[in-house]
Each structure stands twice: as C-alpha cells, then as structure tokens.
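Q: What would this complex look like in 3D?
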Amino acid sequence: QEPQAGGTLNVVIQPEPPGLMIGLIQNGPTQMVAGDIYESLLRYDTDLNPHPGLAKEWSVSEDGLTYTFKLHEGVKFHDGEEFTSEDVKFSIDVFLRETHPRLRTSLEHLESIETPDPYTVVFKLKNPFGPFLGLFEPGTAPMIPKHVYEGTDFANNPANNTPIGTGPFKFDKWEKGSYIHLVKNEDYYLEGKPYLDEIYYHVIPDAASRAVAYETGKVDVLPGGSVENFDVPRIKEMENTCITDKGWELFGPLAWMWVNNDNPPLDDPKVRQAIMHAIDREFARDALWNGLGKVATGPVSSSTRFYSDATPDISYDPEKAKALLEESSYDGETIRLLGLPYGETWQRWAEAVKQNLAEIGMDVEIVASDVAGWNQKVSDRDYDLAFTYLYQYGDPALGVARNYFSDNAEKGSPWNNVANYQNPEIDKMFDEAALMVSPEDREKAYAEIQDIIVSDAPNIWLLELGFPTISRCNIHDPVTTAIGVNDSFRDTWIEK
Amino acid sequence: MSLLSIRDLTIALPEGADRDHAARDISFDLAPGEILCIVGESGSGKSMSANAVMGLLPEGVTPVSGRIDFDGRDILGLSEKEMLALRGSRISMIFQEPLSALNPLMRIGAQIEEVFEAHGALSGAERHEQALRLLTEVGIPDPQVTIRAYPFQLSGGQRQRVMIAMALALEPDILIADEPTTALDVTTQAQILELIENLRRKRNMAVIFITHDFGVVADIADRVIVMQTGEIVETGSADEVLLHPQHPYTNALIEAIPRLTGDHSGGRGDTGEPVLSVEGLCKTFSTGSGKFFGKRRVVDAVQDASFHLYKGETIGIVGESGSGKSTLGRCIVRLLAPSKGRVLLEGEDIAHMPGAELRERRRRIQMIFQDPFSSLNPRSRVSRILTEGPIAYGATPGDARKRAGELLELVGLDASAMSRFPHEFSGGQRQRIGIARALALDPAIVIADEAVSALDVSIQAQVLDLLADLKARLNLSMLFITHDLRVAARICDRIIVMQKGRIIETGPADKVLRDPDTDYTRSLLDAIPGQDYERALAGAG
Amino acid sequence: MRDFWKRYCRNRGALIGLLILTLVILIAILAPLLFPQSPWKMVQRPFLPPFSQGDLLLGTDAVGRDVMAGLAHGAYVSLLVGLVSTIVALAIGVPIGASAGYFAGRVDDALMRFTEFFQTIPSFALAIVLLATFQPSLTFVIIAIAIVSWPPVARLVRGEVLSLRTREFIEAATLSGLGNLQIITRHILPNALPPIIVLASLMVAQAILLESSLSFLGLGDPNIMSWGYMIGAARTVIREQWWLSFIPGMAILLTVLALNLIGEGLNDALNPRLTRKSK
Amino acid sequence: MTRFILGRLVKSVFILLAILILNFFLIHAAPGDPAAVMAGEAGAADEKFLADLRAQFGLDQPLYVQLWIYLKGAVQLDLGFSFRQQMPVADLIWNRLPATLLLTGAAFVLSLVLGVIAGVAASARQGTWGDTVISTLALLFYATPLFWVALMAVVVFSVWLGWLPGFGFETIGAGYTGFARALDIGRHLILPATTLGLFFMAIYTRMTRASMLEVSRLDFVKTARAKGLRHGVIQRRHVLRNALLPVITLAGLQAGQVFGGAVLTETVFAWPGIGRLMFEAINQRDYNVILGVFFVSAAMVLLFNLITDVIYVFVDPRIRLTE
Ligand SMILES: Nc1ncnc2c1ncn2[C@@H]1O[C@H](COP(=O)(O)OP(=O)(O)OP(=O)(O)O)[C@@H](O)[C@H]1O
Ligand SMILES: Nc1ncnc2c1ncn2[C@@H]1O[C@H](COP(=O)(O)OP(=O)(O)OP(=O)(O)O)[C@@H](O)[C@H]1O
Ligand SMILES: [Mg+2]
Ligand SMILES: [Mg+2]
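A: Here is my prediction, written as structure tokens for the whole assembly.
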C-alpha cells in the first residue's frame, strides 16, 4: 500500500512530561514526545538489530575497540543549522556525560571521540564493550545542537522550553495541562517524510477519561499503559481498532518484587523461594494484564539478548511453597509489601500477591505511598517486598547487571541493587561477560549467570510486561522499531 | 348598629396542644368608635380570637363553628382574595413585639407605602407623601429622616408608632391591637395609649384592645370582655366589669392588682452597720466591636451610684427602661465588673476582688432573675438546681438535699418537686424555685431583678407575698429592681429612682411615691395607667 | 425520652433512615460471621455478574473477590471511619468552640482566628497533603478527616455557647459558686447538645463521603476494604461492569441518606420550638 | 468601609503566611523529594544526578533557609520556580487559574441560583408532592459521592448518549476563536460544572427551603399579611430577602469546599485547572507549586469571604449602619 501524506495524529500522553529537553529529562512521556523531535545515530528493529538513523553506515574494528559512524549529509536542526560530527561529539562527550546518568555509566568504557570530518565520528573504547552498539537510540543518546548549548548552563538554558532537534517533527506549542503540539519538519532529510502534518499529544490525567477519549474519537493512538488494562479488551473490540504489543523489545520491561535480603526472615533463601512459588503469575497475567506479556522465568527478559530458558523452575506451586515455608525460619512475622503507585493494575496486583501469600500462611500488610514515597522507601531499603519494573535496554550488561552487582547496593537509588544481593562470584562474571567480544561467549556466560541468580532467588520475578499500543487501523505503521512510540512517527501515515 | 358581630365562635387547636379549643362559643359585638378591651391571663385565647377576625390564624388552628359578621358578610366564608381586600384597609392589626413585627431589611417608609400598594391606592409619589403624613400624625420625631430609617434604628416606642401608622394608613373601620404596649415602659405606654385614644376619637374607629393590664383597661376601655381558658366569663361596660365584677375569676384578677397607694411598712430607721454599701459605682460599656464600620460607642450605663442597704431592709430600684437598673444590680453581684467605685459587702470591698476570694464572699449575696423560663436550666432536675450551689461551697450531698427539701417547703412547693424538671412547673412555681435557689446559700442580701414582671397578675401577687414573708422571717436585705411602680410600692421600704445611669432620687417609699422631689419621678408616676380606677376601687372598697 | 421518641417517630423519613442505618450497622457487626473469609480472598473467576451464582449474590470483582463480602466488611470500615473521625472532630471542635464562646474577648478572638485559618485552607486539599505526608493508613485517614472537619463544630458550639452564656441560669450557676469548667460541662454543653447531635449525624455522613473520595484517589488504607476503595477500584471497569461501582455507590448513598434523614429527624425531635409547644 | 476592608486584608496576609508555613513543613515532612521523583520517572539515576538536581532546585540548603527564601518571595508575590515544569509557579498557576475559576464559578453560580430557586419552590409547596420531589432529590444529591456522579455522568451523557464531551477544556485542534470557542468551552463545561455544583446545589436547596419556612413564621411576615399583601409579594419581598441571609453566609464559608471538590472534578474530567495541578504537584513533590496553589486558593477563599461579607453589608442594613 502506498503511504498517503497529510493528516493530524492525536496521541495520548500520560503523565504530562516535566519537560521536553530529552538530554536533561529521560522519563517515559518525555521520551515519547521528544522522540519525534530528537534523533540518535541508529534505530533498532524489533529483533534489536541496528538500522541507519542519523548515521547512514557504521563499522566496528576486529578488536571491538573502534566504532566508526558515517553521518547523513544535509541534516538540519530545526533552527536551520546543519547537523555535523561536532554535534555528536558535543552531545555524547560534553552534554550527556554531564546530565545523563544511565549513559554516563556506559561512557566509562569510552576512551575518546574523534571527528576526522563533519560527517565521520570515531568512538575509541578502553576495552571491548559488547552492548556499545545498542546505545544509540534517542532516549539514551539524543543528538543535541552544540551551537545552542555549548558553554551555557544546560539545566537553565531558555532553549529547553523550545526544544530543537533534527527530528521529523518540530515543537510548536505546549498548553500546559492540555496538549503539546508538534508540526511537520518540512526540511527533514528524508524525501517525502514525515507523512503526517502535525501531532497533538493530549494530556488526560485520568485513565478512564483516556479510554473515553479514544472511544469518542478524540484521540487515535493509545500508547502502552495509557489506559487501564481492564479497558483494553473493550477497546480492542471496537471497530477499526488495531492493537500491537510490539515496540517494547529494547526496553524489555520486567516486573518483579524486590526482596529486602537483609531483613529477617527474608534473609532466609527458603522464605524467598517459598514466596517465589506462592505467586500465581498466570492469574496476574490473565486477570490483570489481559493475557498480554509473559510469565518471567528469571532476571532477564526473553526479548533481551542472551536470555536463557534453562534456569531453575520458579513457577506457581502453593503446596511446594507451603512446604518450603514450613522448613524455613518464617515465624508469622508481618511482611510489608510496598505497592507500585502506577495505577489500578499495580494496586490490584499487590492485593493479589498479598492474598497469594496469605494462602501459604504469610501475613502481609500492603504499604501505600505515592511515587515520591515509593522512591524514598525503596532507596532507603525501608521495605520487605516492593513491586517494581525496570527496562533492560536490550542487553544484560545495560539493564540487568546493575540490579545484582554487590557494589551497586548502597542506599540512595531505587534502581541499583536495592535487594542488597551480595554474590562476589556473580559480580566477577558480570564484569567479564560485558567485556567479551564474541556474542557466543557472552551467551554462555550469561546463561550461567542466570542459573546462579535464579537459584539464589534474591528477588521475586513476576512478568515480562506486555504493553499494548492501541490505534485506529487506518493509521499505518505507528510502531516500527524496538522502542515503539518512543521513536518518531516519521513512518506513520493515515489512510483516508 | 354593630360594626362587627361575632357569634358562637369556636376555634379548634391542633392535636397535641394543651387543650382542644383556643376559644369556645365566643360571642360579642363591636360598635363603631368603641374601644373594646379583652383581658384574661396568658393563654386564655385572646390572641386567637382576634386573629380569627383578621383571618390570620396560625396553621392548624381553625375556626370550626360560629360566624364573624363584618359589613353584612360572614368573614369566615370569604375567599382568601376577598380577605386580602379587607386586611389592612378595613380591618388592621398591630402586634405586641415591636422589634420583630417590622421587616429588618426594609426601610420604614417602604413598609408603610406597601399598604397602599397592596390595595392599589394612590400613586408612588402620593404614597410617600401619605407615609410622611402618617408618621407625623403618630408623633414620630423628625419624620423626614425616620422614613428612610431601618427598624433597628428606632426605639421600641417608635417602632410601635410605625406599626400604628401602618395600621391606620387606609383609615380602617376596626383596629385590633394585641398587647401593643406590653413591651414598652410606662412613659412610652402612656403616650401610645393616648395616641390610640386620639385616633379613635378623630376617626371614629372601633378598637379591639387586648391586654392583661387592668390599669390600661381602666384608662381606655368602653367595654370589657374577660376571658378564661378560651371562654368569655364576663362582659360588660368598663365600669360594670371593673368596679362590680360578677364572675369570681374577674374578681380574683382585680384583687391581685398591686396598689400604688395604701399602707407601707414604712422606712426602717437607718440603724446599725449597712450590710451593703455602694460607693461611687460606675459602669461603662463600649460597643461596636469594630467588625464592620467599627465606630466605638460608649454607654455610661451606671454613673457614680452610691447608697447603703441595711439589715432587713428592702430597697426598690425604679426607672424607665435603659436607665441602668439591671446594670447596677449585676455590678453589685459582680456578674459584671464595675469600671469604678466600691461595693462593700459586710465591710469588704468586692468590686475588684479576684476569683477565688470573690467566690467565697459571693455566697452572701444572691440573685433572683426576671425570666422564670430562662433562669432555670431546662436539663437539670430541681434537686440539682437547689443542691449544686451548696455542694460547690462544700456541703455534703446529703445535707444539701435535706436543705433543699426545707427550702421547697419554705417557698410553698411540694417535696415531690425535687425530682422534676423545670418545664413541669408553671411560671409562678418556677419563680419559687428560683427563689429557693437564691436562698439555698443562706445569703444576707438578695437582689431581685424584675422578679415578678414576667408573671400574670394573680401569680405576681402570690410571689410578692412570698418574698415579703421570707424577708421578714429570714431577716434578709433585698434590692428589688423593677420598672413597675405599683410593685415597688407594695414591697419596698425605700426607693431609688434612676435616670440615664444616675441615681436622681432616694427616699422612703411613701415619700417618693406620694411626694417626689424630681419632675422625672413625677412623670413616671403620672404615666402609671389606671390611677383613677385605683382610687375608685379604694373608694368602693 | 419517650416524648422525644414519639416526636422522632412522627417523621417518616427519619424512621426509614433509622431502619437503613440499623441494617447497615447489623451488617457491619455481623460481617465477620456472615463472611468469615477475608474480603480480599479471590474466590471465583473475575467479573462474575450479580445473581449469576448462588453463593456469590453480587458476583465478583476484577480479581475475583466476593463483592457481597466486600460490601459487608466495607460497611464496618465506613461506619468506623465516620464515627471515629466525627468523635475526634467533636473532641477538637467542642472544647475550642466552647472556650471561645464562654471566655469571649481575646480568647475568642484567638481561637476563632485559629478556626478561620483551618477553614480558609481548602479542606479536601489539606486532607490530600496530610495523607501524602503521613502515608495512608486507617488511623491517618481518620485523623485527616477529623482535622478538616472540626471547624464547623467549633463555630456551631461557639454560637450556641455565646447565646447560652447570657442566659440567666448560667448567671445563676455563676452565683452559686460553680467553676467555669463545671458551668461549661454541666450547664452549657447539655443545652447546646441538640444542634451538636444533628451536626454530628451529618458529619458522620460527610466523613463517609470524604473517606470514599480519598480512597477513590488512591489515598485510602490499602489493607482495608472500604466502599470508597471498591468504587475507586471499579471505576476502570465502569463501562462493562458498571454494577461494581454502582453497588458500593448505592451503599454509600443509602448510608449517607439514612444519616441525613436521621439528622433531620433529630432536628425535628430536638427542636426547642417544637419541644416547648408540647410541654 | 475602606477601613474594614483594609483591616481584613491585613488579617488575610497573616492567615496566608500561616497557611504557607504550615504547608511548607507538612509537605517537606512527606517522604521523597522532587529530585527523587524525577529520577524515578527517568528509570535511572545516580548520586550525582540527584545531587545536581537538588542543588539546582535549592533543596540542598537547610529547611529554614528554604522557608525564609520562599516567604521572602511570597510576600513580594513571587511564588518561586516549579522544579518539575521548569517555569515560574506564578505563570503556571496563572495559566491554569482561569479554567478553575470558570469551573468553580460556574458550579457556584449554578448551584446557588438553582438551589435557591428549588428551595423557594419547595417551601412554597411545603407538604405537597412537589416539595417531596425537590427535597428528596436534594437529599439524594447531597448524599451521593461526587466522583461517582462524575463517573456516571460521563458514562451516560458522553459515552452512551454522546451529547456532551466527557472531558477536557475545549476541542483541541479545532481552532475555534471568539464566540465559537466560547460555545465550545461552554459545552465542555456543562458536565464538570454540573457535577461539582450538584452537591452544593443540594445544600442551598435545603438551606433555602428551611430558611424560607423559618422566616415565614416570623412576626413581620404576619404584619405583612395583616397589611393585605398578596402571598407572592410577601414571599418575595419579605421572606426571601431575609431567608437569603444565612444562605449567603453559608455560601461564603463554602468557597474553600468548592475548591476542594474541584480537585476531584478536574481529575475525572481532565480539566486543566489548579486543583489537578496541585494533586499532581503533590505526587511529584513539586513543593513550590503545591505551596503556590495553596497560596492562591486560600487567597481566593479569603477574597471570596470578603466579598460575601461586603454583599452581606449591602443586604443587611443592621450591619451597614451599626451606629
Ligand atoms: N400556633 C399555635 N398552634 C397551636 N396552639 C396554639 C398556637 N398558638 C397558640 N396556641 C394555643 O392557643 C391557646 C390560646 O392562645 P392565645 O395566643 O390566644 O392566648 P393569649 O390569651 O393571647 O395569651 P397571651 O396573653 O400569652 O398572649 C393557648 O392554649 C395556646 O397554647
Ligand atoms: N452588655 C452590654 N453591652 C453594652 N451596653 C449595655 C450592655 N448591657 C446594658 N447596656 C446598656 O446600658 C444601659 C443600661 O441598661 P440596663 O439593662 O441596666 O437598663 P435597665 O434599667 O435594666 O432597663 P430595663 O428596664 O429595660 O431592663 C442601656 O443603655 C443598655 O443599652
Ligand atoms: Mg396573645
Ligand atoms: Mg433590666
């Protein structure tokens, strides 16, 4: 089918992003909108293979230490300035190193960036770093205009309110509390793209209202998580409605419960294993997540590279759980379960888990809190069990290791090793696996790692979440890459 | 020819009322230009009978039989629309409570003009003219200003005049006045009575005048109807009924009227130490909290009052409303803090005495209050009312109860009263309980503030007798505050006259009442209604 | 007392209200007996409609819990929240109002400023902040509700006391040598009671509504099955399983309605004007 | 008059400061801070990131210094900077305030006007079925949870019947201007304003009815009847005016509650007002915004109280002319 140009896309956004300057802020909604404005060097298909982005081609040296990117020529920022290798160097080496905590960790492996000519960028690494080629998506390594930011106070640069990137859409207007309006970038470097004239991101704070918005035709795209899961089946049945759970492969969102490995009786592996078997993940998937997603088998999501399915069984088995609990040191203590304050589904899930644990004889009290309280409690390790879900960024070295490294166990952040899992052997294995050049070697190493971690049961893995993106069927190609709607809508078109 | 003729009128009360009928088989006639007075104790059905004529009976109260003929038609058979045409134009009415009878949010003028409007009389400008003329006619000072005033800016007497102006606006044939002067002091009452009398004469208007004050009746009535529990017990010309009452009830009522003249026990000699000495007492109120347009207003309620009270003596404090009588009494018992001056109670100054010490002294000086309804806690049994004082001063509950029993007997109540609540007593009985309470602490002095004003004449007489008796038996000293000079005459040894916060005259009761020193006192005396009648009674008796 | 009862019964609405409330109270008390299992227990497949299965009269909710059991246990919570928070609010408001009215002058001024202060803050917003600060648990929900609902009590009590204070029987009590505390507790408050009782019945109703609003926003105690929680949890499925929010909504409505009717009945029965007439 | 208003304004300043201080400590006592929230949403952060953010927001200073800085700004009407939205709080609130004013104003006027009319109608028909219907409806609205009504209203009027938009402030992207835009906003306003107004309407209905009946029993009404005035005139001129006094007082006291109700209504109806702004700000620990909203809403309540007091003065001469 031949794409048709023109039309307005109405998309739900929730919550309202704090800002659109993606170099400074990387939360979900910011990524979603800024993904249309900013671009990175590569794009990833749903099997996580790299494709050209701002870089039209690239090569890796044999030793895995040198990466060379050739940039598209004639790419312009929205203010008309040309995009060159200098901008790449500035973005990675200066701006993001200063502001982007997740990228910063990976940049420790970077030796230098060279710009032999305006359209060539050469990255030199200190050591081989397997996941390096997976870093170049807009949420991790957005390209930022050097001429606007160089030498300024990044956080307070007035340009943050009128973001300027190279993307297919330009920022037009942000009516706080109502909508964000983007318009087509007429000077986009790919002929004929984007197809859409404009995009409205609608801010609708209540999940039920968001569903109504779709049903009454106010919006056409419901990105994953924007309506409550309970609403999905109904909306799915509507005329001219298509649903896909693609577009989350890079993130590989995995839900689990942190277990405070320090607190008795949870310091007893038997208790943790008992919990592991007490939880009915299939029920949660079917009743709470509309049957979307997959039951987790361990710390790595099946869409992530180097996933191993040969780990010890952790499936639902209440009898076994009871037996394990019987043998353990658990003695009727009240276990505090910290729910995730991200809407009804999570709340229901906490209630279901509480009930699951009650069935095997554990006394659980749910602790409610808002986002800030959740952060604080998890960071301070003031919990017994705590729901969470985290992205894996396609590679265990990027998104998994951080949660199991002994060194990462200090308090103060909700995304490091919050469980305080201490296993020097695993530390060493993670370190080595990240530096291996050959994918086959890495695969083997990670399989072993997964096996050990699952046996130790430091956390209770639950589900690989499936976030469905719902859109009208006459909107073609809303999701084309591994980051889904967080990528730009440059390939999307509306059939009239 | 009678203007209004009522025949066998019976008015039923709704279920749950204290009796079946507000009025039963009432019959009377009213001639043009005649003043007909209806008297009788509270609740006897006076108001309901009058309201029936206006077609303004409260909900649930309905005339069940009889007829009211006015102008050849039975009023009871008229439609609401026809009644509207009569009300205010042919028959008018004024009510007892002048403060609440006017709409607080409307200007005086507008309220008067409304009468014309209601009956489609006159044009706008003419209405205003007429309202002004009426205000002038009823003797409102400065009508040009008053017409633009709001009710709360007028005194009680002025408000009552406005009511009268309204009632007279369309020159009605009949004016019904339901206790129009009860809330006013004697001087104002005299003026209003005179006004009504004049208007009647000028316009040949018939008046139905409801009151329970025989003095007033004697001054204005042509004919009198006496009512008791809904029935007319006696009717006749004023002279017949007042001087030669036939019915025992009428007799009893007349008997109970306190006499201004007659024998007083006479002033006791100023002997011995006074139990109470008031020296240079002043009380200043400042009002107007500043909440809105906060101009502060300062009222000198009592200025430089001095007197002595001796053992066994009763001093009456009299004066027109607002002259500072109550304030003086309340300063003495320290319910109010005096601004200046001394109050020597048995030699000790309690005027500025602080808390605990004051409490100890204060039991020697007790008070009897005006309103028998609000002076007893409706939620306390009589036993508690009488015992909690002594208990607070350290008596054992047992002793206190015993004493309470004695007190009840002393004031003439049955011992069974102990376990009852105040609302189970009549007004007179309640006042007795109030007296018993005051005596429970064995005071040396009792202050009675309008202790009998709220009571019906017959009950008033009983209570006054009781007080006189107790005083003699217990050798009490008493300050008796009243605006009723007849009452003062009956019980006091000496009388203090107050005007605008000052004591302007003090002397033995006989002297003050017969031969006052000041014009003010004289004017008070002159305003007392029914003096001729009293003389006639005395002559007859 | 019999008198009072008779007057109360004259109001048909009030009787109905009393009937409903008694029923709710009974259910609340008997909930642990009628539904011995936890209301959180997942007993059947989710979204069973009402009356489709014998033992699950009102069907199941989004995770297969018995709605009827939730309703019964929720009755207990709602009433508890309503009663306790009202009692706490009275415990704050009555002393403040009574002191302000009784001592007048500067004390009154200070206390009324304090009350005004709490009335100026939008109450619901304050409740939200309180719960964000202290974390939602039943205790804090109750405290938060009490904190935002006492000012009207204080105002009412103050007004009553101000008018009672000048009544002659209070002066008589002063002259009888009673202390301030005795006068307030023995003479003033008992007489101020009727309007306070009426207000209290309305406050219980308001507290139940407030608790449900807070629960609806996710600020309730997550371990406790309340009606507000049930509505909040069911709002996402209001379209297909509308009864899941409708049923607890009706429960709140009926209970609050009952309390209001009772309040009106009390108002009639305790009204001094009516009382005096039938003396 | 001016003196009175000035006095009130001075008093208001103190109340506002007290509210700010109380809320400042309350909200700072809440667990978590804006930096942690923002980091939380980003899904990753390290110590440096958090420390940078905190320094940028001024959260690294002692609490009393922060309070002092805030109050110093507040008395100059500078409400600070929103950590999260990166714009001045005053701008943020200023953008949202009209929506809230429109919503609460509409709800308020609606509830007051309809409530009074219904109350008068009910009292005029006291004891008849008309009275029963109005009173019962009022009682029902009074007893129904606001958010529940909101949910049901959306389902019925927006989803089932499709008559009215179920949420939002205006049709986004329609590009209406002038009258068309006003009309569009008006259509969006109907559901939320009605929902918010219902509860208060119920209150005013009940209050007006009771007050009308109460005043009808007063002596001056009897006087008016004795004048021969027609029933309608008496009701309008004598009863209603007096009966409105307590309603006005109550309306003044309720300003704060209307705003509280707006938090719920704005959330359910996606109304871009400050109630929702505050609710979100609390969850995000955007301290300055929370305080700013409290400041503005309390100021509005105070202003409103002042206005009702002034109205009261014009309605009731007893207050105007004390002395
Ligand atoms: N609105 C009413 N409803 C029921 N009963 C009433 C009502 N008003 C008066 N009554 C009763 O009607 C009877 C007569 O009352 P009415 O007011 O005529 O007495 P009154 O002679 O005017 O007394 P007073 O001197 O106290 O004014 C009394 O028993 C009273 O209790
Ligand atoms: N609490 C008060 N505040 C302000 N002014 C008061 C107060 N009490 C009394 N007054 C004023 O003091 C003056 C004297 O009042 P007081 O009550 O002593 O008069 P009275 O002689 O007892 O009158 P009455 O016969 O009407 O009872 C009046 O002008 C009154 O308005
Ligand atoms: Mg009468
Ligand atoms: Mg007096």
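A: To summarize the key features: The pocket of magnesium ion (ligand 4) is lined by residues B 325-326, 450 (CB under 6 Å). The CA atoms of residues 40 and 227 of chain B lie 5 Å apart.
Q: Very helpful, thank you.
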